[in-house]
């Protein structure tokens, strides 16, 4: 692939890089060499018209959902709608799940008639996962995309009902109504994680003079958020304001968890971190020790890279 269209490159470490316009994917698969090579070819072939087909339905995808679902034709667009539909009682457009839906679509193409032990498609931090029997992947969680470092790690195992994760917040590439530095959600697929991370990040909010907001359309003329005020800056907040904002986000995450829409969530705001864990998780998490969480382990990152002041369940 070349020119301004979709591009593909095999990186020196064996990962595949696919890029077209705003879509930028890093892909890795494990298995027999021939199977991995075939899976990469299938990913490249499927990627060829992903953006082109999405653009054809952008007006509908940027329209807030209402009582009647829009008629969408593209497979990625339909994934976006499916992921966002449960949240239609609040302001949401299918664009809230675009990155995760693209990751899911490419992963599905890779797996067709292939035998892979595990694989992932990473679309700017929104990740679709494949885990074969007894396989696992350890993933890093970043609290601040402006100063990236691994602030926590989580190991996802095949037995878990998690095949996607996504991160949202006011510092990310998407606009946010809230003030979370980052909300990382673990769900059944990447599109669902993308939509729910957006909603939880919007809920991490409080009114304070240190927070600056502007209408979304003033920052991006084509924003699907229109005149809604999105966060553009967050100064240092006092502890009560941080606690209130995080509590609101955690309440929202718990409600989504009760509906079966997420498995777990990790919320970060100015060196405060809360985790909404599955019901089977322990009530307390030791700050400096390994802790069992939905048959996996969350840990604080090494002190040399960790910036989170606290890590505790909500």
Fold topology:
Elements: E1 7-10, E2 16-20, E3 23-30, H1 33-47, H2 50-56, H3 58-61, H4 75-84, H5 98-111, E4 118-123, E5 126-131, E6 136-141, E7 152-157, E8 164-168, E9 182-187, H6 190-203, E10 211-215, H7 216-219, E11 229-234, H8 239-258, E12 264-269, E13 272-276, E14 291-293, E15 296-300, E16 312-313
Parallel strand pairs: 13-16
Antiparallel strand pairs: 1-2, 2-3, 3-4, 4-5, 5-8, 6-7, 7-15, 8-9, 9-12, 10-11, 12-13, 14-15
Helix pairs in contact: 1-5, 4-5, 4-6, 5-6, 6-8
What is the CATH architecture annotation?
A: Roll
Radius of gyration: 19 Å
Helix percent band: 25-40%
Strand order of the largest sheet: 1-2-3-4-5-8-9-12-13-16
CATH superfamily: ApbE-like domains
Q: Which percent band covers the strand fraction?
A: 25-35%
CATH topology: T-fold
Encode the helix/strand succession as letters.
EEEHHHHHEEEEEEHEHEHEEEEE
Number of domains: 1
What general outline do the C-alpha atoms trace? globular
Give your account of this protein's structure:
- The chain is α+β, with helices and mostly antiparallel strands and 314 residues long.
- It has a single domain, classed as T-fold, CATH 3.10.520.
- Helix content is 28%, strand content 27%.
- The strands form 3 sheets. The chain has a 10-stranded mixed β-sheet with strand order 1-2-3-4-5-8-9-12-13-16.
- Strand 14 and strand 15 form a beta hairpin.
- Helix 1 packs across helix 5, helix 5 packs antiparallel against helix 6 and helix 6 runs antiparallel to helix 8.
- The protein is globular, with a radius of gyration of 19 Å.
- The C terminus is likely disordered.
